[in-house]
Amino acid sequence: MSDIAHTPRQVADAYVDDLIDLDPVTGTFLGVPEAHSKLPDLSPAGLDAVAALARRTLERLDAAEREPAADSDVERRCARLLRERLTAELAVHDADEHLRAVANLGSPVHHVREVFTITPAETDEDWAAIAARLRAVPAAFAGYRETLALGLERKLHGGPRPTETFIGQLAEWAGWFGEFTAAGPDALRDELTAAAAAADAATLELRDWMRDVYRPAVEGAPNVVGRERYARWSRYYNGTDLDLDEAYAYGWSEFHRLLAEMKQEAEKILPGAATPWVALAHLDEHGRHIEGVEEVRQWLQDLMDEAIETLDGTHFELAERVRKVESCIAPAGSAAAPYYTEPSVDFSRPGRTWLPTMGQTRFPVYDLVSTWYHEGVPGHHLQLAQWAHVAGDLSRYQATVGIVSANAEGWALYAERLMDELGHLTDAETRIGYLDAQMMRACRVIVDIGMHLELEIPADSPFHPGERWTPELAQEFFGAHSSRPADFVESELTRYLSIPGQAIGYKLGERAWLLGRANARAAHGDAFDAKAWHMAALSQGSLGLDDLVDELSKL
Fold it and tell me: Considering Cα of 235, then 240, then 243, then 246, what sign does the dihedral take?
């Protein structure tokens, strides 16, 4: 792109084009065919190139905002998002956070593996691109290792606990690329086998380096990040500078509110239960279940299809291509939490929900219903697919790579609450499951902020009042106030230590969506149209939390 002035949307979309050249994983998520055979440069030089692109784009945005066309609401919102996102990303990069990017999900290596699960694999041409991408895996992993090695040299260490978990994941991934290519065409069998073998070998080589070099070097390093680093990451994931002490207090207020509601539902399930989680444990054994992996995948598909039929035309107006969403089983070695992958911008790849089975074949219904309202419909899928649907009216940036985590996660948690408000959680079993999921998000705010800032546990807490948070106390607290099994709880705490500031965005994002709706309802009074508001809200693209409340209140 030349350096002459353009509109903010043109600057934003030019940034997306340039970013795809540097990060083909992003290109595949957006459905760009030319990206499917490539992987990004994960070395320090490659990551510096992405940062340099952000700096150039901010300079171009400065010029574009001086143009008369920048005064429209559409251009203003795009410029607002682009500036906030690139500024937050540069703050993280300039603090060398990429030099210690070790995590149990969401790391550059996780993105490399995940992209293969969404790369087109229908034709021989598709598989030829996959073979080329597989051949790029060793260089990508070597670049990542170079980045971590520079971090060690500068004494910028990843956390020991995320490191240990990541090593275990790499070991579990051994042979995964070979298994993945088993579905490829016979005409490319030799090429695919050789490329997959090289990718599998690179996985084990990285595992060995992490185990033999990186792990000893970071032994004894802190797992928590402290207030300064946490504030930087919180800005990155939430799109605003939060008052962290106020957010921590809000987490506790939600904890107490939800606990009271959970006790009421627990009494209906198991009268006299000592805690709501005793009643939930009873449901684990005696509640409704789905037996079988394929059976649960189909059950979740039916749940989403039913939600679309019920909501479309009543509370939403959905384009036909937004109505399609697929239920999938996550590949082995994933983190424990379910997740969603958005459709490509042209919808050639639909939105998909992913369930990690963790080796299980029996699945409690109470734990699935509100979770799939969150991951699928009306949660992530309706928002992110709608963004893709209106990308031409916004910009590709606003609909895709400019996503603010707390905006999306906040909408998905709001969607769970909306289904409760609309009467879709009618029995005690599914409603306590919903409240348990809400409680998990309140606990995330408490322990994520609490342990990274080493805050004091309040005097009115039922758990270790007056003590300072540690990761060990956080895991104990989370486990005591969640129906999730021990391996899930352990995976979650490792996640919070790996990506500080992200987990709080669910509850704080939900609060922003609720406040924006309340403000809009107050402004319109009896004329407030919830369906129209939902569609306008879902069609404005991504925004940070403060900007989100401002824009939602005006709809």
Answer: negative
CA 545 to chain centre: 16
pLDDT at 392: 87
Where helices occur in 454-502 by DSSP H, the ranges are 471-480, 486-498
Give 247-284 pLDDT, tens digit per residue: 999 999 999 999 999 999 999 999 999 999 999 999 99
What CA–CA distance (Å, rounded) separates 116 from 133?
A: 9
Give the pLDDT confidence score for residue 485 in this predicted structure.
87
Distance CA 55, CA 259 (A): 47
pLDDT value at residue 484: 86
Beta strands per DSSP E along 257-402: 289-291, 325-329, 339-341, 351-355, 362-364
Which residues are CB-neighbours of 395 under 8 A, at least 6 positions away? 9, 12, 13, 16, 78, 541
From the list 225, 258, 246, 231, the residue with the least C-alpha distance to 508 is: 246
Q: Which residue has the tokens 């490509």?
A: 344
Q: What is the chain's mean pLDDT, rounded?
A: 95
What angle do helix axes 428-453 and 471-480 make, rounded to 10 degrees?
170
Start-to-end CA span in the chain (Å): 34
pLDDT recorded at residue 362: 95
In 3D, which of 322, 319, 316 has the Cα closest to residue 536?
316
Q: Say if CB 324 and CB 304 are below 8 A apart.
A: no
Tally Cβ neighbours within 10 Å of residue 121. 17
Question: How far is the C-alpha of 295 from the C-alpha of 302, rounded, in Å?
Answer: 11
- Check: CB of residue 432 under 8 Å from CB of residue 266: yes
46-63: average pLDDT: 97
Phi, psi of 78 (to 5 degrees): -65, -45
Longest dimension (CA), the chain: 71
Alpha helices in 244-290 (DSSP H): 244-269, 276-286
Query: Of 57-71, 101-115, 460-474, which gets the smallest average pLDDT?
Result: 57-71
Q: Which residue has the tokens 């996959």?
A: 130
The pTM (predicted TM-score) of the whole model is 0.93
| E strand or H helix that includes residue 421 | helix 405-421
At residue 383 the predicted structure's pLDDT band, cuts being 50, 70 and 90, is very high
Compute the distance between CA of residue 9 and CA of residue 394 in angstroms, rounded to an integer. Answer: 8
Residues 6 or more apart in contact with residue 96 via CB below 8 angstroms: 151, 154, 156
Dihedral sign, Cα of residue 471, residue 141, residue 39, residue 127: negative
Q: Look up residue 69 and give its DSSP letter.
A: G
